[in-house]
Write a structure and sequence with these properties.
Elements lengths: L1 H14 L15 E8 L6 E8 L5 E9 L5 E2 L2 E8 L2 E3 L18 H8 L1 E5 L19 E2 L2 E9 L12 E5 L25 H4 L1 E6 L1 E9 L5 E5 L6 H5 L2 H26 L1
Antiparallel strand pairs: 1-2, 1-11, 1-12, 2-3, 3-9, 4-8, 5-6, 5-7, 5-10, 10-11, 12-13
Helix pairs in contact: 1-5
Length: about 260
Amino acid sequence: MKKKWMAAVAAFCLFGALFVSPAGAVHEGAVYSGVLTALNDSGASGNAKITVSADGETMTVVVNGRNFNLDGPHAMHLHGKVDGENVTASSCPTSAEDSNGDGIVTVLEGAAKYGGVVLSLTTEGDTSADSALAVDRYPAGTVINYSRAGIDIPDVLKPNLSKLHVVVHGVDENGNGALDMDQAERSSLTEDFPREATAPALCGTLTVQATGPVQTGAGGLQAAAAGSGSSVVGGNLGGTALSIIGLALVGCGVLSLRGNRRLTR
């Protein structure tokens, strides 16, 4: 019996690490949030939240913003630096990105930091980068409260949502509060829109808040807090199972100590 128990502990020591991974590595059910800060003297502030579905295929995105100086359309996107299957961390621009010194960080000047459009946060229809300039399908006004569920997540983004940024566009440059379609300065993306329409107004980093849902020992579901030191195995097991794992880990230590003693004899 003793030999069987020790053999079981040895197997756990050899293979247990394969089943214990950081909770932050879980994509399904993860929750991300971020504070949005003003750019280009937009006067705005806001926040964003992304909740990944239980199967990891879609997400619900919530964006709240207030005190925009532009009472007009606000195109909103997830921006990122994506090159094929690789995604590198992006960041929000500062006034240092105003390369020509005209007082406005344009959408392309900002892209040096936050990357290109990877998803369009439209109110309806397509959410791909193809809808980046579909201004009639974005929220408008000095206050926005956006929420949309069922947005498909491209495979390349699934493990990389924390590397993306939420960017809300649209600022008022001349103080009249309206979008001036005849503005002399045109968007750095297209001559079809004034610079006001596409200049970034808010930007924020996405930080993972929780992962899950995970099965608890009581048979229910809960989200495991990211960065809490919990694991996928730990989040799925009750107290009894965790006690068994703890005993097995002690056994690993005993086996290791015995091995070391044999080597020194």
